[in-house]
Amino acid sequence: MAAPDFEHDLVGAISHLRAFARSFANDPARADDLVQETLVKAWNSRDSFTPGTNFRAWLFTILRNVYFSQHRKLRREVDDPDEQYQNSLSVPPEQHGHLDLADFRTALGTLPSDQREALVLVGAEGFSYEEAAEICGCAVGTIKSRVNRARNRLVEILGDPDLKGGQGSSGGHVADKLVKDAVRG
Questions:
Q1: Which of 43, 113, 143, 153 is deepest in the core (most CB within 10 A)?
Q2: HEC string for 97-150
Q3: Which of 114, 120, 112, 109 lies closest to 137 in space, CA to CA?
Q4: Terminus-to-terminus CA distance in the chain, angstroms?
Q5: Taking a C-beta distance cutoff of 8 angstroms, is the pair 112, 122 a contact?
Q6: How far apart are alpha carbons 55 and 45 in whole angstroms?
Q7: Distances (CA, A) of 122 to 14, 69, 90
Q8: Rg of the chain, C-alpha, whole Å
Q9: DSSP code of 169?
Q10: C-alpha closest to that of 175 among 123, 136, 114
């Protein structure tokens, strides 16, 4: 891949990388740090990219590896999984739509990381099950199962029967649109 094409594709993937990083790190600043380190690693390894293969999948694999490397290093960091401390420092939104999205983000954050990761890859980022399986290094059936369990768990947590509607008007799963909004908002 020529340098201008690589650079163009790299810049074009930033918003997708940021959304995927936010599914790992509930802190937007940490997600941006993940993206930045991913971009640096991708740029430094641009000669190892094989033209004709899935560029975004290559970048997502780098981001995923960066996250897990950092995660192993940060095991001693104080965990705030239910965001009680974080929420005590913020002012709640005044509009109900923001509250609903905040509730959805919280619910999404309670999912096991493997389910959340699969749902974001398939639902928000539009990867096929096969591509998501390749990124995660597991079988296609495992990805399908994780996505299905994640969707069902979100319905259970939120108690929203509209989420059980399955396919939305645009052909995608209703929960997938909310995942896109949650990770990109």
A1: 143
A2: HHHHHHHHHHHHHHCCHHHHHHHHHHHHCCCCHHHHHHHHCCCHHHHHHHHHHH
A3: 114
A4: 32
A5: no
A6: 12
A7: 17, 23, 31
A8: 17
A9: T
A10: 123
Sequence-ordered alpha helix ranges (H) in the chain = 3-12, 14-24, 28-44, 55-73, 84-88, 96-110, 113-119, 129-136, 140-158, 174-184
Q: Which two tokens stand for residue 59?
A: 């970048």
Say which residue the tokens 């059936």 belong to.
141
The pLDDT of residue 135 is 92
- Asked whether the beta carbons of 63 and 34 are under 8 A apart, the reply is yes
Least Cα distance to 60 among 104, 118, 140 occurs for 118
d(CA 120, CA 111): 11
Take residue 82 and report the two structure tokens written for it.
């239910």
Work out the number of other CB atoms within 10 angstroms of the CB of residue 1.
Answer: 17
